Amino acid sequence: MARIIEFSGTVLTGPDQDRTGLWAVDGKLTFQRPGRIPDVILDGWVLPGFVDAHCHIGLGPTGAVDDDVAYAQAMTDRDAGTLLVRDAGVVSDTRWLQRRPEAPKIIRAGRHIARSRRYLRNFAVEVEPEDLVEAVRKQARSGDGWIKLVGDWIDRDAGDLAPSFPDEAVRDAVSAAHDEGARVTAHCFGEDVLDQMLDAGIDCIEHATGLLPRHIPRFVEQNVPIVPTLVNIATFPDIAARAESKFPRYAAHMRALWERRNERVRDAYEAGVEIFAGTDAGSVIGHGRIADEILALHGAGLPAAAALDAACWRARRWLRADGLDEGASADVVVCAEDPREVPETIGQLRAVVLRGSVVRWE
Prior knowledge:
The chain contains 13 helices and 21 strands. It is α/β, with parallel strands linked by helices. The strands form 6 sheets. Strands 12-11-13-16-17-18 form a 6-stranded parallel sheet, with helices on one face. It has a 4-stranded mixed sheet with strand order 3-2-1-4, with no helix packed on it. α8 runs antiparallel to α9. The protein starts with a strand and ends with a strand. 52% of the residues are buried. The mean pLDDT is 97.
């Protein structure tokens, strides 16, 4: 660890706030000039380390991965500037990674909770409605304040997306999670499941590709954020193509959801719904793609500063993590140019600093 790092460029303490004069001393940030010469000087535009609010370190296409693969996933995310991960469900117990000082910080959610035979094989705890509450309590106690429900998936009998559980079971499950002190998020592709989750008092929605005008005022009123995972939604046409022969209705539905993905994100943002950046890395999406997700949010209609906010300052406050604050852990990224003016600069970071250690320096 470089004991003293001087950040000599502009420090972005918010999407529209900047100042100069920031140092890392023994792993902590300070705006007070140290009495000693810095060991390292990093020049550029300084932001808090990125947040990937939907990430699966420890998960692969067929389920759990070996520890060495999980470690490599974590390092790939870290080197891309993701220094805080909200895990959105993994089979593996990754608490060992939380003890590695060189790994990004992880807020764990335990395993996905899905309806029996209604999700990807080997990913989730699969239960029937009568066992949902018990499963929620167990996962809430094994995580770090979040649990992940699979809200909908293809119903092969119906040939299309359908909610995974009855309304009453979902309401009881969300209530049980809250009793355990956990927040609840849910995988939601279709339209009807959003009504169900909002009725149940959900805390967050993943994907939200079925968002309709009737939903948006409720998201705002109930202060329920959305993590769109646009780099994952880009795979919908391929999913539809594979399903076409057996489930044509489902395939058409997935294409329709994909076609309106950007419009729905833009409409939600403009109405005041909180939007956060998440890649869904760890199953079919590769790790290290947080810059792609931020740029995709910008491409969907969020101003550049708002797209950054979805992975920086606001995202950290939402997850109750420090940003660029006096005494905070020195977890920062350094860009060559102002990312609010040149968003693409986040894809070629000049430096990444985690817990006061320079882990990447171009």
